[in-house]
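Morning F.,

Quick status update on the modeling queue. The single chain you submitted on Monday has been processed. Sequence for confirmation:
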Amino acid sequence: MTIPFIPRVLRPRRAAPADAVRPTRADINLEALRHNLRVTRRQAGGARVWAVLKADAYGHGAPAVARTLERAKIDGFCVALLEEAVELREAGIVAPILVMGGHYGSAHDEVVTRGLVPVVHDLGQVESFARLVRSGDTPGPIDVHLKVDTGMARLGVTMTELPDVAAKIGIELRNQYVLGYSPANQVRDGKYRKVSVKLVQPRGLPPLHAFWRTGYYAPTQ
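Structure tokens below.
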């Protein structure tokens, strides 16, 4: 007997325009958004382009922005919360979605069922996703991104923990990228890239992405 899928995570609730108290109004030009994507693609060369749509696409309206960019052939989307990813899936978005926040409560199975790519940053999360594969509840391997703390003291595996966590990501999970947060000045002067490459290459880990405080998202390889 097949057990029906019952979602644990609901999409965010937002006030309808008629219920809003503040008189502020924002007109979003979707053609300008498509133009910005074209310009970004040219600047990115052969790199893939993913749009960060956390916080309701920074107030622009995540579902509408996502539909526009998906039709313009963007490579994927990033959100901070699982709820934000659920909102996009329920709006019909089928492009890859990366959940950057790294908190899933007891909804690890829902992350997989909805076709999301989770960020993991500790052994407990790695084990929770691996358990789904070992139990037969989901086919493996599950794609994940590993987040590393390079000095910002935010979420992420520490340099000391990295070897053990990387070793645990194997048969059940497939690590697509290593993510790191670093101060903007370290990225500009090349320190982040030098440290990251030295750290990752000997362990056979995949390419890196660099995040820094300005919110820019760039592949370092």
